[in-house]
Amino acid sequence: MKIKDILAHLESIAPPSYQENYDNAGLITGSREWEVKGALCCLDTTEEVIDEAIQKGCNLVVAHHPIVFKGLKRLNGNNYVERTVIKAIRHEVAIYAIHTNLDNMLYRGVNSKIAERLGIVNTRVLAPKTALKKLAVLVPASETEQVRAALFSAGAGTINGFDRLSYAGLGVLTQGGSSSAHLKMEVVFPGGNQGAVLGALHKVAPSAHFEITSLENNSLDIGAGLIGELPKPARELDFLKKVKKEMKAGCVRHTQLTGRPIKTVALCGGAGSFLLPQAIRQKADVYITGDFKYHEFFDAEGKLVIADIGHFESEQFTIDLLQEIILEKFPTFAPLKIEVNTNPVLYL
Predict the structure, then answer these.
(1) What is the pLDDT at residue 146?
(2) How far is CA 195 from CA 161, 200, 345, in A?
């Protein structure tokens, strides 16, 4: 099995086209054509992580955070980023990052993993961000399944938790003096994935007639953050204690309690203060995330409780998620979870 086989599955769950503009998800070192000897799942890639990968015979590190965000102008080993990349290249360890594209997935995404640990149900995206588009293409009846399979593999037809959805109507295509049986196939896809969808179509049916229509609908399973409900209301302090325990947080920095029970919960793994307005607008009782700055706590204004559990703490179970995603496709392959703790923040 090659590294590209594992990456193809990861990218079917979280297509790279859904990463934010500032991000650098994808293969950072190594080659997709290498035979995979072992995979090590982690949150951050550091020198210690590469050392552990080497020790355990893993030539693939699957990380959530990219080790390289900005362009590297030199590789002199002057900082941990350069030293980590140099060590990975020297020992032929591939580093792959699956970051904001995984953050933006509702199903099998970072935030759903948090919701699972906290027992939150009826989950949905807090801030849907990708408008939907519809592809209509005329396909000879004999080529229908080939085209449909190609479009599905590019991410079309997977919308709001449903998979491989398409519609086709039978008709007759006339051209000049000839006619032939054709299907008008329609599939819906997130707008951000248009390049991949058209690329797949062109590969299998380069001369097909098609049109793309922008829809008013937003995709309900792609976007930032998550909101849902507890099975039954909980007292604020009791719930915050549960969050601290389940998320293994060193502390929970929170705003003044409102005196109201917690029913609706909003959350965002990582640095999520930018989603506070959406959490308030959707009547969340508590908003769980990391990296709130001092003055941003005032913005709660008694409308909800902000619970800052820390960046690492909110995303640490993404390591389990990555292992689970790989195992579900390759049950006889044994991806490992990192043993070294890469959290740079310590608590007294």
Answers:
(1) 93
(2) 22, 9, 40
